Amino acid sequence: MRLQMLKKRIIIFLPLLPLLPCQLYGSNNQQFLFDHLNTPHGLSSDNVFSVIQDLYGYIWIATSDGLNKYDGYTFTHYRNDPADSSSLINNALNNKNALFLDSKNSLWIITAKGINRYLPETDNFKNYIPDSSKINEPGYNYITDICEDLK
């Protein structure tokens, strides 16, 4: 029920449209409602870099202060915890391509220090950290995009 309502809403996470709320009509006169969500509503940061919706209807938001999962009502925050190797590698998700959903509905997250894959069964992350022995090589630890080879 909660996720069904999410499909009929368009969520705005950046403070770009100060005239909200407003309404938009799509094909067949279907009405869409806009919600303007920011830190007072529970978002971890107003600096949003990437947004994606998974097949379960959750909206994932990459910010400068970690990852947020929105279920249409509340936010769940994911941040780095140095004592927990299954947390995000880094809180800085400052990349317009920070989130990627593969063909198996796995969520991949690019951070400033490596790549994470979200594990829904345990609600944590598998971390992929670049080889630190190559730290002085050009381009080390600078991941800009992620894609999937379907071969």
Features:
11 strands, 151 residues, four-stranded antiparallel β-sheet, globular
Blueprint of the fold:
Elements: H1 2-6, E1 9-12, E2 23-25, E3 31-36, E4 48-53, E5 59-63, E6 66-70, E7 75-78, E8 99-101, E9 107-111, E10 114-119, E11 124-128
Parallel strand pairs: 1-3
Antiparallel strand pairs: 2-3, 4-5, 5-6, 6-7, 8-9, 9-10, 10-11
The helix content, as a percent range, equals: under 10%
The fraction of residues assigned to DSSP E strands is 25-35%
The average pLDDT value, as a whole number, equals 78
Distance between the termini: 37 Å
Q: Measured on Cα atoms, how large is the radius of gyration? A: 17 Å
Number of strands: 11
Uncertain residue segments: 1-8, 12-23
How would you explain this protein's 3D organization?
There is one protein chain. With 151 residues, this protein is mainly beta. The protein has one helix at residues 2-6; strands at residues 9-12, 23-25, 31-36, 48-53, 59-63, 66-70, 75-78, 99-101, 107-111, 114-119, 124-128. The protein has a four-stranded antiparallel sheet, with no helix packed on it.
